[in-house]
Amino acid sequence: MNKRQRVKKNAEFQKIFKRGKSFANRQFVLYFLPVEGQEEFRIGLSVSKKVGNAVVRNRIKRYIRQSFLELKDEINPKMDYVIIARNQAASLDFHESKKSLQHVLKVAKMIQKVK
Questions:
Q1: 3-state secondary structure 5-33
Q2: Nearest alpha carbon to residue 22 among 102, 113, 88, 107
Q3: Residue 112's pLDDT band (boundaries 50, 70, 90)?
Q4: CA pair distance 91, 70, nearest whole angstrom
Q5: What percent of the chain has pLDDT over 90?
Q6: How much is the pTM?
């Protein structure tokens, strides 16, 4: 994912938290906010130190980014997303985490077409 596709600034995170909607399951919390005139979605990731050490946190972030890349054709592009990983996300492998993210996106009705 390139820099255009990431939410980086604290003010952007706070805007999404305050104005956006949220959905969750046991592994992830998804916040999203519609953005006018945006061609592709942006994601911000938050993985607390409570989830695990740096290796575990970075692995979770890699899994989330890769899942979004694989799902990019199905995901609503005119949105900013923030994904917060919960403690249970540390025990998932890639396929389980992708399935969990798909579940949260379906509950939030952010996936446009269903395979």
A1: HECCCHHHHHHHHHHCEEEECCCEEEEEE
A2: 107
A3: low
A4: 21
A5: 74
A6: 0.89
> 63 CB contacts (<8 Å, ≥6 apart)?
92, 94, 97, 98
Tell me if 50 sits within 8 A of 87, measured CB to CB.
yes
Cα 51 to Cα 61: distance, rounded to the nearest angstrom: 12
Q: Please list the residues that pair with 13 across neighbouring strands.
A: none
Q: How confident is the model at residue 76 (pLDDT cuts 50, 70, 90)?
A: confident
Report how far Cα 36 is from the mean position of its chain's Cα atoms. Answer: 19
